[in-house]
Amino acid sequence: MRATDGTASRGSPRLDRAGFERLYAAHYELIMRYALRRAPSPDDAADVVAETFLVAWRRQDQAPDGSSARLWLYGIARNVLANQARGARRRERLNARLRAGVAKNGHDARPASAIAGTRIAIARAFGRLRADDRDLLTLVAAEGLSAGEIARVLDCTTTTARVRLHRARARFARELAAEGLPV
Q1: I need a labelling partner for 140 at 20 to 30 A (CA). Which of 3, 75, 89, 129 fits?
Q2: pLDDT tens-digit profile of 21-65?
Q3: Is 8 helix (H, G, I), strand (E, B) or coil?
Q4: Do residues 121 and 152 share a domain?
């Protein structure tokens, strides 16, 4: 929230571009070394640094002065690394579930054209949903978020998130039925 005099309502005044560039120049190498020691690859470390400074830019009204800025940036980088690790774990769990499903079921006995046709029908049904519904369903299916976590993403109550998710699922089921797919 901004005060009318151009300063932030809490924390220090918002940095101008030159101030942010000084912050970046002064701390880039430290944050890069920090990320390189913790990230699985140099590319991931570069992503961590980029995301760290993006978050710092967005939250620059919270930036402390002086040497505390370095510690603030380390905290942001630590959170970015944690988010990156959580994403990697989610992807690995999804891959494991997919591998287990293939191993358990073997290959699909339907012809490839039937499988492709089903996937196309699902994609058409999904594409007809409103963007908000697609986002909700993706947060559950692809990101593995719970209703409580979705509530935090949407900045609403868990009950509201559950209702929105229920309605999105119902609309998707109707679209799948319209494609002639079993629901």
Answers
A1: 75
A2: 999 999 999 999 999 999 999 999 999 999 999 999 999 888 888
A3: strand
A4: yes
Amino acid present at 155: D
Residue indicated by tokens 């505390």: 68
Tell me whether residue 64 is in a domain: yes
**For the chain, what is the total number of helices (H) and then of strands (E)?**
7, 0
Other C-beta atoms closer than 10 Å to the C-beta of 53 total 20
At residue 2, the pLDDT reads 34
The model scores a pTM over 0.85: no
Residue 1 confidence (pLDDT) above 50: no
Coil, strand or helix: which one is 91?
Answer: helix
Q: What is the CATH number of the domain that holds 29?
A: 1.10.1740.10
